[in-house]
Amino acid sequence: MKLFEFEAKEILKRWGAPVPRSVLIRKGSNVEEALKRSGLEPPLVVKSQVLVAGRGKAGGIRRVDSLEEAVSTVLELFEKPIKGLKPSYILVEEAVEHAQELYVAIIIDRNERKPLVLASSQGGVDIEEIARKSPESIVRKHVNPWVGLRSYEARWVGKKIGLSGGVLASFASFLSTMYRVFEELDADLVESNPLAVTSQGVVPLDARIIVDDNSLYRHPELASRKDDSSEYTHWERKAREAGLAFVELDGDIGIIGNGAGLTMATMDLVHAFGGRPANFLDIGGGAGSDVMRKAVELLLEFPKARKIFINIFGGITRCDEVARGIVDAVKGLGNPDKPLVVRLSGTNEEEGRRILSEAGFQAFTDPVEAARRVVEL
Q1: Measuring CA to CA, which residue among 209, 215, 228, 225 is closest to residue 14?
Q2: 56 in a domain, yes or no?
Q3: Separation between Cα atoms, residue 90 and residue 303, nearest integer Å
Q4: Which domain holds residue 64?
Q5: Is 152 a known active-site residue?
Q6: Does 153 qualify as catalytic in the annotation?
Q7: Which of 103, 231, 236, 321 is catalytic?
Q8: Is 146 inside a domain boundary?
Q9: Which CATH number do you get for residue 204?
């Protein structure tokens, strides 16, 4: 479960971390009145509150130099979608003057079964970009989950990214707070990027927290907003209403699989041959023709998916049911002009192939061959 930036910062503040002074503005409220009541003085930073990364690159974070500019920018950002999401909230913060930007995060290293601290002296960009351009700048420190993050370990991380004196002490204190939040919330991620170095110490200019969904029964205050629709794009909401597990991505090849592992492996295959998935869509094990029909109809209408790759391994899922769902969806939408590549293998495979063949579709048995074909189309 992803938390909004304003929620993450409120949690960090509750645990004693310094955060910039701010005001949260809800869509439909009086923006000018809210800003005046906040007592904030320009320069300010106006931030769209959507649950995706890369808001700055997408124009969702703006610095303004007057209250009038702040009002107009807030109103503009409410109407500006970021990766398909329009915000219901805008965060307006005081601009923090700083000399350096750092990166720091705590994640789960599932191979080691331990929390892992990541830190870099190069903040403000994606960690993937840092790892690609200067991997030596990323400091990694595993934490013993039975003991927690010790103060000397937090200082060690700070020293490794070049900090000293009062800034080092401030960083170590902030990192310790991050770890306590990480532990208390059963988080998968607690991140600050950028973490600003100011004359008073470190201040998080941005904050992200992702909580493990399996722990939400222990956090009723978070579980109450689990189905906040602002977390989802239009097509993700539409899929949820149809009972489908769907995540919108940035490519052009629609992906359908049965089971999360197979669906992700299908995406990897597409990537391996130079393709880019437009989505993740898992119909689940044992899905019948009706579920398959809904999944295919969704992708036939989904504008990002210019072609569709359906990869089914029938265990408890019957291939004949899958085939009927595909044929029903295509006929129901009047045979839309969007190529479909189907890989079908497993239970009732022969009957499924017969149904698809009579409808004019070829069914591959080799997923590698099918993935290569859909990329080549």
Answers
A1: 209
A2: yes
A3: 28
A4: 21-94
A5: no
A6: no
A7: 103
A8: yes
A9: 3.30.470.20
